[in-house]
Amino acid sequence: MIIGIPKEIKNNENRVALTPSGAYALVKNGHEVYIEKDAGMGSGFSNEEYFKAKAKVVSKEEVFAKADLIVKVKEYLESEYHYLRKDQMVFTYLHIAANKSFAQALISSKTTSIAYETVTDKNGTLPLLTPMSQVAGRMAVQVGAWILQKANGGSGILLGGVPGVRPAKVIVLGGGTVGFEAARMANGLGANVEVFEIDQRRMAQIDELTSGQIHTIYNSEYNLKEALKEADLVIGAILIPGAKAPKVVSEEMVKTMKKGSAIVDVAIDQGGCIATCDHTTDHDHPTFEKYGVNHYAVANMPGAVPRTSTIALSNATLPYILKLANEGLVALKSDKGFMQGLNTYEGHYTCKGVAEALNGTYVDPMTLL
Asked: Which pLDDT score, from 0 to 100, does residue 5 have?
């Protein structure tokens, strides 16, 4: 099989979908890897490294024209839609529940699309989302600390405080991978951290894992409304696999927050879980102010630390890429968790969460394959 790795063109997206090590593994298994020239440069991987790994360094047009399987990091942008075609598989972060135009392009072209973010493992977790969730969760605290600096429009508060001065209050919405990593990072910096969650078992896990240092609060509207009034930094980390994120923080709640406080909505690539994060931002212009609160809504946060992110992502995706290359779509039929990743096939929505979010018709992929 020919695997194509195009260069990412999203704003400041410096990740690449495959490391030279991954390319070498695919070639060793009898496949060909076509990588666009300079695709790895943003992550510190030179064309020469891919050449030594036996990959073919070619133009963008050749990558899309020759490949049976396109492997990316982020979704296609509108300027790339014309590359979509029926006889090609696409494996990347799709996030189409919050991107109707891309979803329609996949349906119209009848492209077979497999989303990293909806693949599950035998434990029901999201193995291809986890590494980037870990990066984004930890980054959210770094970003939030930067926004809170006075020179950046913040209230001028230090997350950990100092002796004799109270630390910042950090509210984390959701106790999954992103939320837990954010909470751990904020706690490590000395902040007062509360994680709002609805799963009692997860709250017990967080309490046990952190020896009670991170406080967990049941995420009711009343509890959240009261807590937000005192928050210095709010991190949105609520995910429903494949579906749009629910808006758990209303505009009215944001109006009650302190002037100069900060919101980092990590769920923005799925539509965001905070009502006032009504549009995405980018790394060039990452924040905007509303009701005196500074909002950060960058949809590709890990792109800011591409070396770490690329290696972590490639480590997780390579076994799945090898399966697809070796077996084709049969790899999905033999692995229910991998099948969960199939979002579109032959012009149909094959992921329930995506179909519901887009008011489309869901078709069981097993009846199509």
From this structure: 98
Q: Does the reported pTM lie above 0.85?
A: yes
Q: Which of 232, 269, 295, 348 is catalytic?
A: 269
Tokens 């193995």 locate to 127
Amino acid 320: pLDDT: 98
Does residue 95 have an active-site annotation? yes
Bridge-based pairing state of the strands 342-345 and 112-115: antiparallel
**Together in a domain, 121 and 142:** no
Portion of the chain with pLDDT greater than 90, in percent: 96
Residues 295 and 234: beta-carbon distance below 8 Å? no
Closest CA to 193 of 144, 249, 125: 144
Confidence of residue 365 (pLDDT cuts 50, 70, 90): very high
- 38 flagged as catalytic: no
The CATH number of the domain where 16 resides is what? 3.40.50.720
- The pLDDT, as a whole number, for residue 243 is 80
From the candidates 31, 95, 295, 348, give the one annotated as an active-site residue.
95
Query: Are residues 281 and 314 both part of a single domain?
Result: no
Phi, psi values for residue 345, rounded to 5°: -155, 130
Identify the domain boundary among 254, 275, 299: 299
Same-domain status, 112 and 144: no
| Spatial distance between the Cα atoms of 202 and 309, rounded to a whole number of angstroms | 26
Tokens of 93: 């972060």
